[in-house]
Design goal:
This protein has about 150 residues and is α+β, with helices and mostly antiparallel strands. It contains 3 helices and 8 strands; from the N terminus they run ββββαββαβαβ. It has helices at about 40-55, 95-100, 125-135, and strands at about 5-10, 15-20, 25-30, 30-35, 55-65, 75-80, 105-115, 145. Strands 1, 2, 3, 4, 5, 6, 7 and 8 form an 8-stranded mixed sheet that branches. The protein is globular. It starts with a strand and ends with a strand. About 30% of the residues are buried. The mean pLDDT is about 90.
Length: about 150
């Protein structure tokens, strides 16, 4: 069973997303991805965020666990803080950079104003709804299953 870790990264009134054009579908998702063999959810989160944005996670709190269809089955969603505020960019050594070069898929990290979030074509609507509610009312102190 596959698992993934994803990051909710807020900066002021903006939230960070990954724009994807994959196998003919265009959508937005959170930064993050599949865990490697033997990797904890937190280790995978740190690695994926670094690969996909260049940002370093300084703090992370698990806020949602999302049941998801294959290939992930379960996604761990963390509210994250970063220790650097560099411009975001796919790192040249990442899988996403390789796929972008091959023109097979497009992966692009983007900041979006939180007021626009609910209008994005987000990959999993139940997670989009949970994040929208949490931005307005506060993130849960204990992880919620969605």
């Amino acid at each position: 069973m596959g698992k993934a870790s994803r990051a909710i990264i807020l900066r002021g009134d903006n939230i960070l997303f990954m724009y994807r054009h994959k196998e003919g579908a265009e959508y937005y998702t959170l930064v993050g991805g599949r865990l490697k063999e033997g990797e904890t959810a937190e280790q995978g989160l740190v690695r994926e965020v670094k690969e996909e944005t260049g940002l370093d996670i300084s703090a992370a709190r698990l806020v949602f666990i999302e049941k998801h269809p294959e290939p992930y089955n379960e996604q761990y969603i963390y509210l994250c803080e970063t220790s650097n505020h560099n411009e975001v960019a796919i790192q040249s050594t990442s899988e996403e950079a390789m796929l972008n070069k091959l023109k097979f898929n497009t992966h692009e990290p983007l900041w979006t104003h939180i007021n626009l979030f609910s209008r994005l074509h987000f990959r999993t609507p139940q997670l989009q709804t949970a994040i929208t509610k949490a931005i307005a009312e506060g993130f849960p102190s204990e992880p919620l299953y969605i």
